[in-house]
Amino acid sequence: MKEETVKLIVILLGVASTLGIYSILYKENKVFRFFEHLYLGLAAGYSISAAWNDILRPQWWTLMMIEGRWWMLFAIPAAMMFYMIYSKQNSWMSRLIFGLFLGATAGQTFQAFAADYFPKFRTAASKAVMDLPEVNQPGAYGLTPFSAALNNVLFMVILASVMTYFFFSFEQKGKVIPSVSKFGRYTLMVAFGALFGSTIMARMSLLIGRMYFLIHDFVQVQLLHMQ
Amino acid sequence: MFQVQHGAALYTHLAGAAVVSVILFFALTLVPTKLRRPLIMAVTFAAGLFYALEFFWPVSGPESDQKNFLTSYIKPFSDITTVLQSFALGLGVYSLVSIHLRKVARTQSGWAYSLVLIVSMIVMVIAHIGKEYIKAPWVHQLNEFAYSGLMKSLDATMFSIIAFYIVSAAYRAFRIRSTEATILLVSAGIIMLGQVAIGQAITNAIPNEGLTANLRVENMANWILKKVNSPAIMAIDFGLGVGGLATALRLWLSLERGSYFEEEL
Amino acid sequence: MRIPQLDRRVLYLLLALVVSIPLLVNVPLPPPAITPPTKSFYETIETVSTDPKTKDKLVIISCNFGSGTLAENLSQLEATLNHIVSKRMKFAIFAFNDPQGRDLGGSTAQRIADKAGYKYGEDWVNWGFRPPQGIQSLLKAMVNDLHGALGTDVKGTKLSTIPVMANYKKADDVGLIIEFAAADTVKYWVQFFQRAGTTPIATLFCPTSVMANEAYPMLETGQLQGMLVGLKGANEFETVMKRPGFATRASASLSYSHLLIILLIILGNVGMIQDRKRQQGATK
Hints:
Radius of gyration of chain B: 29 Å
Distance between the termini of chain A: 24 Å
Oligomer: heterotrimer
Number of strands of chain A: 0
Largest sheet of chain B: none
Order of helices and strands of chain B: HHHHHHHHHH
Structural class of chain A: mainly alpha
Helix content of chain B: over 70%
Mean pLDDT of chain B: 91
Shape of chain B: extended
Shape of chain A: extended
Number of strands of chain B: 0
């Protein structure tokens, strides 16, 4: 098959699958169900092949069979323990191997916490005091040292109030904590609003990507031979 | 003992390792019931301890390459757990295939779709693994059709379809019913306008210098993102981090309770 | 005037039209404002590529995205790579979250490198994909031994035998990290690589718009030096570079689709207020 023909078929398959999936927008139909299952099958197949091509072959098979590290064979009985989940008598063996992963993940969480959160805590806590001359940075329109300091204090106040909102999620007594917590809730709403705005942009971008494919790659380039 | 082997010696060692594997596997099945839970707890604890010790144990060596006696084992341990995790993928595949094969075998409603799923999975495996071994053009073409033609488009389209649902939700569900909803809406509005050229054009007449620059919509959006969104997200992140740490500790010390952790072994 | 209850399919059609028309015909639009994260993104590359201490160091282009977010991440990658090759900086493609990133990043790099006269192995290299499960330990090992930790490139050639890698052996030889991602994978670079050498490495982030909000705190704390926020970030960068690409073409569609959403939210709320008033009138 010529390279151009392959390219054309690839585009046609892309067009068919894009329109097939979008057909659900009109109503539930068989074409959508077909492409939905096709997608699930292809994605599952891709995961299997990626597991072999990118992990098992280079990190296990090649090491064992080409480089001669015969002890890598012990990975097979260890992996078999996962599958004992289907055995009534010995399903506990699957927990042994899952336990290994739970323990390792917990250990990695300690390391990641120390590497990520300690510096963040330090930077955030010192921000109001240390980070005053933000005035010359890009985007600091009209910032004076006073407003920069005010912004940094606001940063700390919001941080503290949102944490108060989360950590005092049980019954709140007195006046201070409920008020701080309420302010925390309002600032969270501002953040969620920002997140909503960003989500819209993300999804619109992806839709534009598909429309561009249909209009430019298929209609303009393939059908009308425009560039 | 663990020395690299080649040729016939490799196969002899592999055979030996296979025999030892079978014996060890069989031996595990003989572990008495009352010892099973302590054994699982010990393995879980040891795996976590490895990382904890590696982190807390004092390090030595030149400044740019400080390590302790466990540091050099971190990567091999991580490599082998990665390999084991890949083997576990079979659990998911087995579950998926068995459900759909059963549907096909019993010609239940929608069996044809199940057949599509199984066939497409096999085709992708043949094409994607095959391209690494077989040089024949048809394998590469098959991979092009399955991956570039179908999967790439299906993946991108599935992700993009949410844009349509957002439009519907914006018209039908995004209502100002409370103070919180109003704040959320105003914030979302400023961000949306501040992020796109046409929204920014609304305040283009305001000079982008001096204090008045703060009235430009893109600067307002940037201020919200940097000074209000950032600390709020950071606080959520701290909460998640502390929660994650607590959960990790419970798992490591086998203190976690619930159906999975309390079942009879 | 009463706000009608529109069928959802009418809304879908409206969106499809609003997005498609600007792709078919030229719709006039003012240029986008260049936001601070994009400005600092551009300035960081400029600084790294001109500073005598960093200009000859390696740039790591980390491609952790798949085909699902191509519209955002690919346009960012194309714009950035064009800038990197225009500065004649050597770069390495790398992926550790999705194997698709290796192929999508690799093919884009190949196309741009060929145009710029870059030679594979001499001016750039593709380190390939490494599984995410072991990324923490891999990055830690890479700090002092890039060749040993990574082993081979995407073609299976040992890194120690690839000419471009001859001078790049550890974290101190890396001048810039640029992460293109559909998730928060930049944290691994920040946690385990960025500050592990003798001097901190400048780190830039190109997330999808939805992931950007989570990354703003890292800009605030100085862990990131710049960011391109989704498709609009790519559009701003193309504008700064005066090299229009897909993001510039998509700018009008992005603008009008946002206007449509705002309009629909307003209409929906006006409809709700009208209904409420009508109900109050009926009960009175």
